[in-house]
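hi! just following up on the protien thing from before. the input was this:
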Amino acid sequence: MVIAPSSSHPTLAHQMMVAAVLFLITMVETSLGYFSFFHGTTPKLVIAMVFVMSIFNKEDIHLITLILVGVIFDSLQGAPLGYTTAALVLVNIIGSLGKRRFSNAPISFLWLDFAIVMAFVMLYCWISITLYYQAFPSLGPLIFQYSSSVLLFPVMVSFYQGIQYLVEIVSRLK
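and the predicted 3d structure came back as:
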């Protein structure tokens, strides 16, 4: 059940590492909602990390990993189950299909591509919220969430590069 059609088969160790990093990011994103600056509307750090991992990882993220992280995230946030999972799968498909194009691009183009992908994710969120609650939500929190997610994207890329560096150091110690 690998999402990308031309990928290598994911290994269990790699998927456990991906799940651990995404779970950590989920906890950080959930805890940011308690700070008064965010007013309960946190940047979508999990979406940013899935986008970065789907582009720069040698192996693809398994669908089960995305479903597990999405269900955990929805359970912590009180969102309808499957809300975040669908967004994670959508972002992973876009990142996996554009892996060759995105991985050789400068960070400014990657940032612009993430801004476009994030616009689609926020449109999905707005449509989902509208259908679920049968009322139009305020656009202010969604715009704040979009802008803070796009602004924090370089931080997520740096965080991912730090993780890759630590994994490389640990693998050399063996």
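The two ends are 31 Å apart (CA to CA).
The helical segments are 12-32, 45-56, 63-77, 83-97, 99-103, 107-133, 139-151, 153-173.
cheers
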